[in-house]
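Hello Y.,

Per our agreement to keep a running log of every chain we model this quarter, I'm adding this entry. I've kept the format consistent with earlier entries: sequence first, then predicted structure.
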Amino acid sequence: MSKDMFDLRGRAAIVTGASRGIGRAIALGLARAGASVIVNYAANRTAAAEVVGEIVAEGGRAIELQADVGDLSQHERLIAAARDGFGRIDVLVNNAGMTRREPFLAATDDAWERTMNVNLKGVYFLSQAVARHMVERRSGKIINISSVHDVRPMADNSIYNITKAGLVMLTQSLALELAEKGIQVNCVSPGAILTDETRDRLADPAHRARVLAKIPSRRVGEPEDVVGAVLLLSSAASDYINGATLYVDGGMLLQ
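Predicted structure for the entry above:
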């Protein structure tokens, strides 16, 4: 296998929710592999601009773009930014997601609607919009960022769990329909990763000990640990990988 199969020079990518955490690491990783990147954010423009600044400082190309992926009317902004700025869309990383921890007996319709819109409906229809451009080249990569909770439920987070389980079937369904059009659709499911959302809980020694006890690697992952899987699935090296879910969890699901 040629090392050029992992080269993303000349490619353009959209990464949703790229201003922090796993999305930020993915945007930087794709740029370092040569891709031009749309750094999408929902609210934190300063953080997104910092990601773009880091990419540009390293000689890459990037544009920050505000859009709420849970609002379908805002998807066209993402498409236009990539097409106008880079002339093409080769990779879509559906990373943006949300969770609202609440027990099932207290769950609200508002939490259901908002979480479903961002984690599932937005992914589905943004993928549709991007795929319509990818079919012109008969080439493209769509990568959905899920979670180990797509197969292992987390207490007091049933709505989130449901959206992530749905994301796996969404991945398989789109992969089946788009394969003959030269587009691969795959999923990356991280385990315990240290991000802004998990930092406070993992700072509690008792909670951290419980988490580590579930991970054979005996460490919590960093956002950068997810990047390698995304680079593989973004590159020509994954042209015969379709509809797969790759777990990046330190072996958590082995136990």
